[in-house]
Amino acid sequence: MIVRIMGEGQVRLADSHLAELNKLDDELLAEMESGDSPGFRATLHALLDKVRELGTPLPDDSLEPSELILPSPDATLEEVRELLSDDGLIPGALGA
Description:
Structural class: alpha+beta
Radius of gyration: 13 Å
Number of strands: 4
Helix content: 40-55%
Number of helices: 3
Largest sheet: 4 strands, mixed
Oligomer: single chain
C-alpha cells in the first residue's frame, strides 16, 4: 500500500503492518473525541513515526496513487477531524 504523509511524501507499506497502525489510529480517535490535545499530538507523532519506520520511502519524483493519506505532523486536532472518515484515518480501524 502507498501511504502519503501530507507535506512529506510517500512510503510503500506492507499491508501486514495495518493492524499495528490501527491500534494507534484507535488511540488517536479516542483522544480526538475526548478533546485530549496533548495526547492527540503525541499519538499523531507516534503514528507518523511508525509509518516512517515500517515504510520504504518512494523517490520524490514518484507519482504513485496514495491509498492512504495521513496528516502532517503539525496538523491541528481540528484539521485532522476534517480528514476523518467513520473508520478514522486508517480504514478498518474501528473495532480492530
